[in-house]
Amino acid sequence: MPNKTYGQMCPLARALDVLGERWTMLVVRELLLGPKRYKDLLAVLPAMGTNRLGERLASLSTDGVVRKVILSAPAAVPVYELTEYGEQLRQPLCALSRWGLNLPTDNRVDPQSGRGELIALGLADAAAPAASAGIQETYEFRVSGEVFHFLVNDGKILPRSGAAPAGVDLVVECNLGTFTALALCEITPTQARRQGLATVLTGTASLFSRAFAILGYRGEAPTIREDLRRSRA
Amino acid sequence: MPNKTYGQMCPLARALDVLGERWTMLVVRELLLGPKRYKDLLAVLPAMGTNRLGERLASLSTDGVVRKVILSAPAAVPVYELTEYGEQLRQPLCALSRWGLNLPTDNRVDPQSGRGELIALGLADAAAPAASAGIQETYEFRVSGEVFHFLVNDGKILPRSGAAPAGVDLVVECNLGTFTALALCEITPTQARRQGLATVLTGTASLFSRAFAILGYRGEAPTIREDLRRSRA
DNA sequence: CCGGATCCGTAACGATACTG
DNA sequence: CAGTATCGTTACGGATCCGG
After folding, report:
1. For strand C, is any atom closer than 7 Å to the CB of A21?
2. Cβ under 8 Å to A: B residues 84-103
3. C1’ D8 / CA B169, Å
4. What average pLDDT values come out for chain B (233 residues) when binned by 10 residues?
5. Could you report the per-residue pLDDT of B104-125, keeping only the tens digit for each?
6. Do B8 and A109 touch (CB under 8 A)?
7. Does residue A108 reach within 7 angstroms of strand C, measured from its CB?
8. Per-residue pLDDT tens digits for B172-218
9. What are the start-end ranges of the E strands in chain A?
10. Which nucleotide shows the minimum CA-to-C1' distance to residue A49?
11. Where are the alpha helices (DSSP H) in chain B?
12. Backbone angles phi, psi at B210, to 5 degrees
């Protein structure tokens, strides 16, 4: 919690007392993809600065959102993970994120900063539970250098950074543009394979197709909002 | 949008580019209760300062979240209201708010800052649509000096600041403690009436009861979180 | 009185350097 | 690798001032 709080008897104000400072929600965003090391957080939020990251992690820890744990031997490396209470931020932050989808990207956003993991976070949240009912599988993606995976478990889908644990059912390699197109259902897995845009390293072509039947996002495409167009006219 | 943006190709980061600065989401929170005048916003967010409020409203306007309109004559007074896009923040902000419900209130929150309107905002969001299916009514509350109302319309409930428009079905007067207890279903409307804690100024006792059958919040009570207790032990 | 804009001291941020 | 310390710059918060 920051030194300056709103001090209001309002749950939103209290939530913002914990999460409202700059960078804080983005740290949580990263941890929604699984436990991460200090350096990995910093690598993905470089402009934050190491001092700010340390402050935020300390603050989130005392507020019970984040926890520092030492991985079991022989790794024995410290990582930060969400507490159960922090995990409950998944829905609110994904809701905010979905709102942000329709914002125009101005020239201040760095096109190079796009990451497949972040798309994965949104896909897992937007997926219809019915589509994966009764299915328990793991899909790993290797996208332009990143590696991440989905744990599909009977309607619940968990997106995670890094390689899948043993027993992965599907491993697909492609670049970020292809993954984005697959996510938006602008291209089918079959087309992607045939055009050489995606390679199935483990598993079958039909499993690849089913993966995006579960994960593919069919929501409305981002559009410039009516109100904004009006104000610019 | 602030001068400093995250510049990340991520919908959450873009949302925070628009909403992430201090006070901004609280301004939106107020406007979720209906259009408001500059002075009324300032009255409810006094620590913000008039300069900050002006900046935020300008920023939210260019981002298409908020719009300044002049009320029709003879009032002819300027108010700020959410655009349709801004209105879509209701669910994300209410989700964040509900997360904040379980945060402990430390000694830095001002107990005097509690407002019935803010409780109303949460109630309207948490209410089960089925409970008000087919019902089209308006309920006004006068709570410790504040006046606000609910527009119930077949499963959709809109909380609004100020007096209800003509044709109100129910008007109840009580203090904030009673309204809170009613909201949490810790007391029934009948009990509140009999104990002299609430007065029905317009409408019937049974309508009062039905209002809280629709609005009453039956979620789990706020508790200190397990993780937080552990970290303090 | 309302709707802002200006000024200014203080706290937060961002970059870099430094330490266990 | 995982942080802490330092420091110049920006944002915030409180007050005052101004036009309608």
Report:
1. yes
2. 84-85, 88-89, 91-93, 95-103
3. 61
4. 92 98 98 98 97 98 97 90 98 98 92 96 98 98 97 98 97 98 97 98 98 93 71 52
5. 998 899 999 999 999 999 999 9
6. yes
7. no
8. 999 999 999 999 999 999 999 999 999 999 999 999 999 999 999 98
9. 66-70, 78-82, 136-143, 146-153, 156-161, 170-174, 198-202
10. C14
11. 11-19, 24-31, 38-44, 50-62, 84-87, 90-100, 116-126, 176-183, 189-194, 205-215, 226-232
12. -65, -30
Q: How far is CA B148 from the centre of its chain?
A: 10
A2 CB and strand C closer than 7 A: yes
Residues of chain A in contact with residue B99, where contact means CB-CB under 8 angstroms, are 11, 15, 88-89, 92
Q: How many helices (H) and strands (E) does chain B have?
A: 11, 7
Residue A233 Cα to chain centre, angstroms: 35
Answer whether A9's CB lies under 8 Å from B110's CB. yes
pTM over 0.90: yes
Pair B20, A22: CB distance under 8 Å: yes
Instruction: Quote the CA–CA distance of A29 and A213 in Å, as a whole number.
Output: 25
Cα–Cα distance, A198 to A179 (Å, whole number): 9
Distance between CA atoms of B79 and B68, rounded to whole angstroms?
6
Q: How many Cα neighbours within 13 Å face the side chain of B43?
A: 7
- For residue A36, the 8-state DSSP code is B
B74 prior amide bond cis, ω within 30:
yes
Q: Which H or E run includes B146?
A: strand B146-153
Question: Pick from A165, A194, A162: which is nearest to A178 by CA?
Answer: A194
The string of DSSP letters for A82-149 reads E-HHHHTTHHHHHHHHHHHTTS---TTS-GGG--HHHHHHHHHHHS-GGGGTT-EEEEEEEETTEEEE
**pLDDT tens over chain A, length 233 residues:** 888 899 999 999 999 999 999 999 999 999 999 999 999 999 999 999 999 999 999 999 999 999 999 998 788 899 999 999 999 999 999 999 999 999 999 889 999 999 999 999 999 999 999 999 999 999 999 999 999 999 999 999 999 999 999 999 999 999 999 999 999 999 999 999 999 999 999 999 999 999 999 999 998 767 777 777 766 54
- CA atoms within 13 Å, Cβ hemisphere of B54: 3
User: Do the beta carbons of residue A29 and residue A80 sit within 8 Å?
Assistant: no
In a mutagenesis test of the A interface, which of B16, B101, B113 is the best target, namely the one with the most A β-carbons within 10 Å? B16
